[in-house]
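Q: I'm writing up a methods section and want to include an example of the input and output format. Could you take the sequence below and give the corresponding predicted structure tokens, formatted cleanly so I can copy it straight into the document?
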Amino acid sequence: MHAPVSKPLADKRLFHPAYPGHWSGVSETDWQDWRWQMRNRVTKLDQVEAYLELTEDERAGIRLTGNKLAFAITPQYFNLIEPDNPECPIRRQVIPNVRESQFTPGEMADPCGEDDHMPAPGLVHRYPDRVLLLVTDRCAAYCRYCTRSRIVSGAGEQELRTDIEQALDYLREHDEIRDVLLSGGDALLLSDNKLDWLLGELRAIPHLEFLRIGSRIPIFLPQRITPKLCDILKKYHPLFISVHVNHPRELSAEVKAGLERLADAGVPLGNQSVLLRGINDDVEVMKTLVHRLLMCRVRPYYLYACDLIKGSTHLRGSIAKGLEIIEALRGYTTGYAVPQLVIDAPGGGGKVPLNPEYLLKQDESGVTIRNYEGREFFYPEAATELP
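A: Here is the clean output for your methods example:
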């Protein structure tokens, strides 16, 4: 069983800048100001139509925003969209589509079962030794397959009401917790002062061994990764950041520079991709993505099956395709480039890893395995008693 050999990348300039694009009249100083980026997000139909040729499904989808999930795109990310291609992999992640209003059996508002595991408002304790703290309901831009669309952006079915003090009290009282993940929304949208305060409060809890932040900010808004922010983050090591990149075109020159600033600050970076139909459910696309991530000093970590969020059928990639991608990576590129394919078991079962079938037979004598080339090998079990 042989995977195809990667084709050489035709584009020798791997990390194109997003600037200036549609914002050619804007100074580079403004462009590099993350607050300018936030103030000038694309949020309305007429703004989009000034730059993109929309389909009727897209136009109807934008009109419906506010009923499920708000609509906003930073200029940085918007410049990556192909204006006349409705199948553009950047476009399909952030431009609404009327199919978001079409629900299929099995889809749910809270596919990861977070609401049933909240001992304090905004604090999710699903695993024995780690928790998720939802610190805000806002993002720089809104992914159309968002797992937390019920609470993110203020337009969903619920309102996020995090009680930070109550969450901190819970963490202080539960010494089995070693690891806190900050998410939301996006934790890196907090002000420098608030983020500094929160990380300091968490680091002061003796049994918390390390902190994590899950963020799309380095991709949607790399200008937010300022030297001051990096100075704050490196005070609280060990601190890890998981970013979210689904397609190699998202890795612009600005994004690469922001990721490198984080790496230079000593922050280990991992990437979590979501398997999306017509976006990255392709061996060559994923191979290019994982290689470029490593060039940005980011290690591919998870390839997620898209959660069963309401209205996501048109975006969810197949598990069979995910396994095919892992099969085509394992052995054909460095192990650092191979993510773990996982399903977050619907309803709150937690992450379940999936792998191609490498274990062929197992009994008391040992195991029969196959390698990436399809060749079989026998590995004996160690004797319980030495002769």
